[in-house]
## 1
Amino acid sequence: MSSDMVVLKNVVKRFGNIVASNGINMNVRRNEFFSILGPSGSGKTTLLRIIAGLERPDKGRVIINEDDVTNIPPYKRSIGMVFQNLALFPHMTVYNNIAYGLRLRNLTEDEIGFKVKESLRLMRMSPEVFANRKPSHLSGGQKQRVAIARALVTQPAVLLLDEPLGALDLKIRQHMMLELKRIQRTVGTTFIYVTHDQGEALVMSDRIAIMHEGKIEQVGSPREVYEKPRTKFVANFIGEANFFEGVMREGFVETNFGKIKVKEEIPASRKVIVSLRPERIRIGNAAVGSENMFKVKIIDLIYRGDTLIVIASLEGIEIKISVPAIHPEVMRLERDKDTWIGWNSGDEAGIFELED
Ligand code: ADP
Ligand code: MG
């Protein structure tokens, strides 16, 4: 048995002049929580609809559970779907909403009842309390749980989720993220989760594919894509980063404001961008002795409770530094004053070659 549950091979999909899927190759493993992350319009929904069979690719193959399903209609693919706006049937009770997919199969009412109650319990919703309610008497988070229960109760090979938490308030969304992760671990079903929210993708995923203009720029674990972004787009989209432009020399990058010592090897004389996460930069006395040290002027101090964000100017370039708010150095920082920042070679998140 292949370790892959879903495989996309060179999938191309155009809408007029727009290339929504521009040669997508993607492997999603069995039992994996896999996220597709990208800004609005990058082609996430199109990709999900192609996997579901709701959209036909112009080119390429779709394989689910080792079967080539490229020409198979949606209802014959073993998939469940949860969308932000995929409403529950409003006139049906929670019970009948969840039972809907089961009724299309030849199950007895006893079997259906057992499965509906079991799936409600998996959602941590008591069947006694919720089975007979109508969707209008549920909160947003509860509706999404019922939608997930309805999609999972038929035991699909893959569950596709398209921004399912988008409409929920922050607190409920944060809670539902952990719930979704727990549910996925419990049932073991392969989840493919589409979102534009990097926080959601980082918290829940085993692996993340980052999409940009119809292409996948990188696939990796949350740690990999954050710590080793392969493109400038990924470095910018996941987390925050400072970017310094310069020219590659032997072991350092030459910039307008001086040399930056780096670890990564890129052929000399190429134009590059060094990216550096705000939390990798030391400030004040803590910066002294670093391989890379620069004098900066503090423009602003933003208190965020756990961290302090320092906005500083380095020869006119705005730099963001994030330090734990309890750090003793923090007390000495003042707006409009000069201070030192520093970091060592290898602290950079990446170095990206610029195309001419
Ligand atoms: P995302 O889900 O990442 O926001 P989509 O997959 O919905 O992106 O869209 C990708 C691109 O394809 C967008 O430019 C969008 O306008 C276009 N697109 C998607 N579906 C259609 C369609 N049915 N007709 C025309 N253009 C479409
Ligand atoms: Mg979308």
## 2
Amino acid sequence: MFITFEGIDGSGKTTQSELLASHFKQIRGKNNVILTREPGGTDFAEKVRRVLLKDNIDPISELLLLTSMRYEHVKKLILPALKEGKIVICDRFIDSTIAYQGYGLGVDLGLIGDLHKLVKIRRPDITFILDIDVQVGLSRARYKNKYEEMDINFYNKVRKGFQEIALKEPDRCNVITEVETKNDNQVYSEISDKVIISRT
Ligand code: TYD
């Protein structure tokens, strides 16, 4: 099973992916659960991540780079783990590219979709989208990367992007609403309820 977490910076998806991974590690065994992230997940992609989150490049170049990092990640880590029956939990994946590069930076959504189809990027089975007020999210974000220096208007577009993805793919996407009004335990209990329902 391939589970992804999505949302704007400061939405708490890293905490939630860690909580879900430790739950599965307890019931399935440590070696049967992979917790990974994007941009990154392989040695190569983690090296590129450092540059990508700092340097400003054209949004199309960014899309191409992110797709090649994702291809490496899927081919070298995600698919082999899924073939072995492991649970893979990934902090950000394709929906971040649609929301940030597509809705946020204006890259054509058709191009993003076509590129991912062309290289046959595996779709997640379940995606959690943590929807949070933009001002609250940004004030919570711990590390500043180049996206976090963008204005509120950019983040409103990114947030809307995630909401639209959820409307287009309701079977895959579960939106956790009003995250700014909930603590980590409340958010996690909504997530764990949905994982149990989806698996039965
Ligand atoms: P993340 O690891 O969530 O940030 P943090 O360092 O706060 O934990 O993500 C890094 C940034 O990369 C985030 O601002 C969103 C951006 N991003 C994209 O723009 N497109 C993508 O496809 C991905 C995966 C991330």
